Amino acid sequence: MHRFFVCAVMAGVLGSQVAIASDIAPTDVKFEDMSIGQSLTGVPGNPEEGAKVLANRGLGNCLACHAVTPLENEQFHGNVGPSLDGVADRWSAEELRAIVVNAKHIFTEQTVMPAFYSLDYGINPRKDLEGKTILTAQQVEDVVAYLGTLKEPE
Ligand code: HEC
User: Fold this and answer.
1) What is the pTM of this model?
2) What range(s) does the Cytochrome c domain occupy (predicted)?
């Protein structure tokens, strides 16, 4: 049900963005070790847009599982996952891209973190999700750009 909602929102709000020819298709994304070196779009990510994706329940909904101090005015912060404060000190941009694209490649198959740019929905895939990702390629780049701003104070 939740997935359906995510897709309905995506289709409504972002329908025109879903397939941009120059984007790397989800099935063509190349993982090298634990990272993805190549931008999915070739267009630099916009951190402000990325912050919106993190907070948006219909998109990243990252705050349902992760606390982020600079976004603490946003609705709900969960603690299923670790706080993302200082995450740019722990992971490179290439690693952060890989985590957002498909966390299963970085953590374990059992991670509860959704794969945001993958067509691998696990067992029992649903017809209405076919060919769609939770985030667009550019939204992934925007999220990675925002995560890159999350450094611990010196
Ligand atoms: C359903 C819960 C859930 C959601 C939603 C979620 N994550 Fe996660 N995330 C986790 C968990 C749990 C981990 C820790 C790894 C593990 O145990 O699988 C994690 C780990 C991470 C890490 C590594 C953190 C570190 O300090 O090592 C990053 C970065 C991350 N998530 C970013 C995101 C972003 C960005 C989004 C939204 C686009 C998101 N997550 C959405 C559960 C979630």
Assistant:
1) 0.86
2) 45-151
φ/ψ of 111, rounded to 5, equals -60, 145
* Residue 154 belongs to some domain of the structure: no
Q: Is 150 in the pocket of ligand 1 (CB under 6 A)?
A: no
Q: How far apart are the first and last CA of the chain?
A: 43
112 lines ligand 1 (CB under 6 A): yes
Q: Is residue 46 part of a domain?
A: yes
Does 152 reside within a domain?
no
Q: Give how far the C-alpha of residue 83 lies from the chain's centroid of Cα atoms, to the nearest Å.
A: 15
Q: What's the rounded Cα separation, in Å, for the pair 92 and 95? A: 5
The residues facing 32 across adjacent strands are: 35
Q: Whose CA is nearest to atom 37 of ligand 1?
A: 62
The verdict on the CB of residue 110 being under 6 Å from ligand 1 is: no
Residue 56 beta carbon below 6 angstroms from any ligand 1 atom: no
DSSP string, 10-64: HHHHHGGGS--TTSPPGGG---BTTB--S-SSSS---HHHHHHHHH-TTTT-GGG
CATH at 77: 1.10.760.10
